Amino acid sequence: MFDDFFIRALVAGIGIAFVTGPLGCFVVWRRLSYFGDTLAHSALLGVTMAYTFDLNIAISVFLISSLIALILIQLQKKTNLPGDALLGLLAHSSLAVGLVVIGFLTFIRFDIMGLLFGDILAVTTNDILIIWIGGAIILLILKLIWKPLFASTVNYELAEAEGLNPDKAKAIFTILMAAVIAISIKMVGLLLITGMLIIPAAMARNVSDSPQKMVLFSIIGGLLSVILGLYSSLEFNTSSGPSIIAAALILFILSLFKIKQSIKLKN
Amino acid sequence: MNSNNNILVKLNNAGFRQSEKWLVEGVSLTVEKGKIVTLIGPNGSGKSTTAKIALGIYKNIEGTVEKYTTKVGYVPQKISIDWTLPIRVYDFMLLTETIEDSAIDEALSLTGVIHLKNKNLGSLSGGEFQRVLIARAISKKPELLVLDEPVQGVDYTGEIALYELIKKISDTLNCGILLISHDLHMVMTATDHVVCLNGHVCCSGSPIDVAKNNEYKALFGEKASQILTTYEHKHDHVHSDEGEIKKN
């Protein structure tokens, strides 16, 4: 069944959409889109590591992204620089270092476009296993930390005062971000992963009035984007990542009509 | 060691410093089951800081906090909620603890906002939101309630009803309450212990003792002292929300 590259890409993409949906909501709620970008950019370094030391790409990306997240937390504590400056510093320097390292690795042929924008041809049965097992673990952990994470997203002090330990939830969530980037990098590409997190969630915000609904619509939006995007990628011979994100954008634009309607109803 | 089983939270010489400036220091107080402890003091005197020390929100504190309960309800003074969140009153009621629908309805009815249950949190007025905050804190039937100016923005009649509700909750749930209030009437009629703050504990004791204290008079003026001492008589009845008189 998984012989066909397109079926493999579809199965992988659907697995990814189930994970990026709920995580993307938290990225929107907690204003972490730039943070997601930083982790995704650092993933390039993880990919070069994987090629150099012959490691699994997902595991290597996960380790490097977690390391970058740790460095960020340390820099935030030790310097007086604003958060966005630190994120920019880490995002661009890790991207630059990654590209420089690729330049040195002349003995390996890199498909840079595939790394940046995703490549459906590259999805193997092994990747599908990593995506579905890894994704299930990510969702399970997210379910376990949902209450403290959501409560502290609404109000940190309330969560802390009523004994929910929001700092621990935040640290675990950071690791989940690194993990979701690791499992989706091959498919979506490192420049567009944040789009996969944010755009379906933003679409969902326009049509939801409760957090649970937003998560549900975000997953549905992600699934539709993957299916539409992959079919058009096959049809028009475009990169998989941009096609998926463009499909998500179309859904977002459609969701804007829903807002217009509800504003009209209120008036 | 907790020698007294009724103690919920105990501050021993507690203080908090933010970038070399003491927000409050040397505070010792105890909140026990069924008792209301009120913090009074001018703006910037460290009332909210003291509440946050008691709650464990501030970590690097001087002195110690002993806490003997994990069932805490908190109504913060300032709450900034990010309105990018689609969240209804109902979702907000379940924020820190999963409680039954009947408990949610009961709490929202008690604070008079049951009709807002399915409204978006962002669409509420200041006073309505304050009532929802109180409902959320009491719905989990906490052992310790920390109320930081709980009735701000609430209309006058609502204010009185809510204070009566707070007093009632302290009795029925037998929970300890740490209250920050500017309402000297409330302080006088319902409070068991008053702590007057001005960066440190300026005086503390029963409401009457505090009212007679010279430092209190210096801080709040003679007038405030008179207001407090006016209440030096025993009430034998309370008024219900409808104005009906109930014997104690």
CATH arch. level architecture of chain A: Orthogonal Bundle
The major β-sheet of chain A equals: none
Specify Rg of chain A, calculated over alpha carbons.
19 Å
Shape of chain A: globular
Strand line-up across the major sheet of chain B: 5-6-7-3-8-9
Counting H and I runs of at least 4 residues, what is the number of helices of chain B? 9
Count of DSSP strands of chain A: 0
What's the CATH class label of chain A? Mainly Alpha
**Rg from Cα of chain B:** 18 Å
Q: Superfamily at the CATH H level of one domain in chain B?
A: P-loop containing nucleotide triphosphate hydrolases
Proportion of β residues of chain B?
Answer: 25-35%
Defining key terms:
heterodimer; A: 267 residues; mainly alpha; ABC transporter involved in vitamin B12 uptake, BtuC; 11 helices; 84% helix; globular; B: 248 residues; alpha/beta; Rossmann fold; six-stranded mixed β-sheet; three-stranded antiparallel β-sheet; 11 strands; 34% helix
